[in-house]
Every structure is written in structure tokens, then in C-alpha cells.
């Protein structure tokens, strides 16, 4: 590990440095090495840095811990993927509270055009397991990447069914990579490393404490294009994941269940409250996500010849991206146009009013034909 990456790891392990401040420091200083070289007075001028944090950064004691962590990663044959790395999953990078560091083991293609998360109760019924089997089998023609949380019930059923179907699957863990939880899923986890990946933001040795799982859920929501809830009680982790996914403007689906069944209450309530689309078959997903259309890179739109003088700089960015690829999902458009989600949404609405852009199901956009 070179000095800059060791500095990145040390910065991540420095007490008082959370995900947001990690990114803030890199942005202000230009590199992790530069952060540790800054005089205390200049560090204190950076928003979010107080006396204690500045002292920790000048002390540099985190480097010893970083060297130990780097050696553990080497022994575990795990990758450390920092927020600034090209390999960092693009979908996850687009969310505000994305982890500064991911621990990764496997070969999953996180840039797969179609990423679906499947989560639900830990006490899955035969009905729930059968629905998972059906969902995964119907996603095979789409060659989707399937994401879940490696937990009992619906999660592990999603992973196992995906392995059987020949698709890649990613398990997002609420513990360290070296602490497989639950232990009963170790064999499945090993298979996932060769047909997908294990992923966590927690350092080696982290135990599966309860507070890690809501944080784990935001990674699941951030990595996917669509989240499918299969069986959930009125309260639980699956509903937390649904709320997070909605806050990230991801499409949420729920499989309806029998009225009165405790593990159908959560899904039925999500549908009733319009917090999730009703999922009955892959056709629902294809329609909402616009996956039945050809979403590969399109040829430039030769017939679009707008008067560029009528647009501001950010509108031009959007139109140029859409001329290169249309239709395109809003997450990718955000990344390509280099615009904040809120700003982009406002500009897209304006371009729709000008009859230049058309919104499609699945949070996709395309240029209108002249």
C-alpha cells in the first residue's frame, strides 16, 4: 500500500472523522497526505474540524492502526475501496451519506445496468420463499445484479436463488468482512465471493451489533435501482430500507400478501400508503423501470438542433448528455452532467416545459423528437 492510500486509511480511522468530514477534508486539502501535513491553525479553519479532531490529525497515531488494518486486508484478500477511487460504485457515490470506505471481497460488477435489491423478514414463509424464487428467475433474462443483506429469511433466500440462477449477488454486511453473520451462512458467503461479492463499511473484527444494520440498509438502498420488499412485518429492517430507498428517489416495490398475515402487513401498508409499487411479476418492474425499452447507448440525435443561446450552462450540460445517451436513468444523468440531484430535477422540469425532454417510467429521461 502506497503512502497516499495508507494516509486515506489513517484518515478514515482517525477518531472524530466521519464519512462527511472525510470527504470535506479531502476536498479542502486535495489529498489525504496533505490533510496530515496541514498546520493545526489551518485545519481549524475547515468546517467541522474542532480542537480535538485537529489534535488527532496532527498526532498521526491512526497510522499504526492503518498499517494493521492494511495487513488484515491483505490476509483476507480483501480490497479497500475509497470514495475517491474509480472502482467505487457509481450509484452509491451519488447519495449524500455514502460511506467513505468500503471493504470488498469478490468480483461483482457494480456498474451492471440493472441492479435490484431484494429484502424482507427474517422469518420467511413458504409463500415468501416462492416469491423470491419467482422474482430471481424472471430477472435472469435481464442479467440483473441482485443485492441483499445476508440475513436469515428473505435475504439468504435471495442470495441462494441468485447463485442457482447463475446471476451475480452481493451481500451487504452489518459486521466486518471477517465476521460472517449469521455463521450458518458461511458456505453461501464463500460462494458469493466467486459469483458476486461481500461488502461492508465496517473495519475488520466489527461485531454484528444492532446499530450497524440501519447503516447497512442505506448501502443496500444506495446500490440498487429498484428495491423489492418480499414479506415484512409492520415494523422492521425491510421497512427502514424502503424508507431510505424512497429518500434516495429509488423505485420501491412490494409483494402483496394475505390480509391478516403478520408478515404481509408491512408490504400491504407500503402499497396502501403509495410508498411502494405493487409487484406481481417482472412485468411490473419492466414497466416502472422502463427496462423493456432499449436502454443501451443511443446514437446522437441528429434531428435535435436547438438554439444553444437560449440555454444556461447547466441546461447545456443536460442536453449534451442526452444527445449522447437517451433514454438515461436520472442517477447516471446526475453523474454525467455533474449536477446535484435537486438542481438537476429542477432543470429537467424546465426542459420538459420547453418540450425538449420527456420523462419515462423508472426515472428515465429522453430527448423529445422534433
Tell me what the structure shows:
The chain has 370 residues and is an alpha/beta fold. It folds into three domains: 73 residues, Orthogonal Bundle (DNA polymerase, domain 1), CATH 1.10.150; 184 residues, Rossmann fold, CATH 3.40.50; 60 residues, Winged helix-like DNA-binding domain superfamily/Winged helix DNA-binding domain (Arc Repressor Mutant, subunit A), CATH 1.10.10.10. It is built from 17 helices and twelve strands. The strands form two sheets. Strands 1-2-6-5-4-3-7-8-9 form a nine-stranded mixed β-sheet, with helices on both faces. Strands 10-12-11 form a three-stranded antiparallel β-sheet. The protein is globular. About 3% of the residues have low confidence.
Q: What would you say about this model in short?
A:
With 370 residues, the chain is of the alpha/beta class.
Topology:
Layout (H helix, E strand, L loop, with lengths): L2 H11 L5 H11 L2 H6 L2 H4 L7 H9 L2 H14 L3 E4 L7 H4 L7 E6 L8 E5 L6 H14 L5 E4 L5 H12 L3 E4 L13 H9 L1 E5 L11 H12 L2 E4 L7 H11 L3 E4 L10 H8 L4 E2 L3 H8 L23 H12 L3 E2 H8 L3 H13 L3 E4 L3 E4 L3
Parallel strand pairs: 3-4, 3-7, 4-5, 5-6, 7-8, 8-9
Antiparallel strand pairs: 1-2, 2-6, 10-12, 11-12
Helix pairs in contact: 1-6, 8-9, 11-12
Summary tags:
370 residues, alpha/beta, DNA polymerase, domain 1, Arc Repressor Mutant, subunit A, three-stranded antiparallel β-sheet, 17 helices, globular
Overall number of domains: 3
Q: What is the subunit arrangement here?
A: single chain
- CATH overall fold name of the largest domain: Rossmann fold
> Helix count?
17
Strand order across the largest sheet: 1-2-6-5-4-3-7-8-9
| CA-based gyration radius | 22 Å
Largest sheet: 9 strands, mixed
Order of helices and strands: HHHHHHEHEEHEHEHEHEHEHEHHEHHEE
Measured between the Cα atoms of the first and last residue, the distance is 54 Å
**Total number of β-strand segments?**
12
Q: Hey, roughly how much beta strand do the residues contain?
A: 5-15%
The low-pLDDT segments are: 293-303
Strand pairing plus helix content: what structural class? alpha/beta
Overall outline: globular
Amino acid at each position: 500500500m502506497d503512502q497516499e492510500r495508507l494516509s486515506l486509511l489513517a484518515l478514515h480511522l482517525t477518531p472524530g472523522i466521519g464519512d462527511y468530514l472525510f470527504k470535506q477534508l479531502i476536498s479542502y486539502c486535495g489529498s489525504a497526505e496533505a490533510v496530515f501535513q496541514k498546520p493545526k491553525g489551518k485545519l481549524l479553519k475547515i468546517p467541522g474540524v474542532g480542537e480535538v479532531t485537529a489534535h488527532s490529525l496532527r498526532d498521526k497515531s491512526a497510522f499504526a492502526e492503518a498499517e494493521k488494518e492494511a495487513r488484515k486486508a491483505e490476509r483476507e484478500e480483501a480490497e479497500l475501496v475509497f470514495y475517491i477511487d474509480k472502482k467505487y460504485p457509481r450509484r452509491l457515490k451519488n447519495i449524500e451519506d455514502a460511506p467513505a470506505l468500503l471493504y470488498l471481497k469478490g468480483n461483482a460488477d457494480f456498474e451492471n445496468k440493472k441492479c435490484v435489491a431484494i429484502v424482507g423478514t427474517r422469518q420467511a414463509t413458504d409463500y415468501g420463499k416462492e416469491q423470491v424464487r419467482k422474482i430471481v428467475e424472471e430477472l435472469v433474462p435481464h442479467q440483473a445484479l441482485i443485492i441483499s443483506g445476508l440475513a436469515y429469511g428473505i435475504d439468504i433466500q435471495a442470495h441462494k436463488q441468485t447463485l442457482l440462477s447463475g446471476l451475480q449477488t452481493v451481500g451487504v454486511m452489518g459486521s466486518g468482512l471477517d465476521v460472517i453473520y449469521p455463521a450458518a451462512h458461511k458456505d453461501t458467503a464463500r460462494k458469493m465471493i466467486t459469483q458476486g461479492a461481500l461488502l461492508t463499511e465496517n473495519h475488520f473484527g466489527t461485531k454484528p451489533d444492532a446499530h450497524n444494520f440501519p447503516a447497512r440498509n442505506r448501502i443496500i438502498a444506495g446500490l440498487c435501482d429498484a428495491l423489492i420488499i418480499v414479506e415484512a412485518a409492520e415494523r422492521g429492517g425491510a421497512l427502514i430500507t424502503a424508507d431510505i430507498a424512497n429518500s434516495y428517489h429509488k423505485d420501491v416495490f412490494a409483494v402483496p400478501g394475505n390480509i391478516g398475515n403478520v408478515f404481509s402487513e408491512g408490504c400491504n401498508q407500503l402499497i396502501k400508503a403509495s410508498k411502494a409499487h405493487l409487484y406481481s411479476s417482472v412485468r411490473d418492474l419492466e414497466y416502472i423501470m422502463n427496462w423493456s425499452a432499449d436502454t443501451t447507448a443511443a446514437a446522437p440525435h441528429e434531428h435535435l438542433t436547438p438554439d444553444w443561446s437560449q440555454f444556461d450552462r447547466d441546461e447545456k450540460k443536460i442536453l449534451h448528455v442526452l444527445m449522447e445517451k437517451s433514454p438515461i436513468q436520472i442517477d447516471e444523468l446526475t453523474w454525467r452532467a455533474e449536477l446535484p440531484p435537486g438542481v438537476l430535477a429542477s432543470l429537467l422540469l424546465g426542459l420538459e416545459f420547453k418540450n425538449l425532454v420527456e420523462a419515462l417510467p423508472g426515472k428515465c429521461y429522453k430527448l423529445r423528437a422534433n
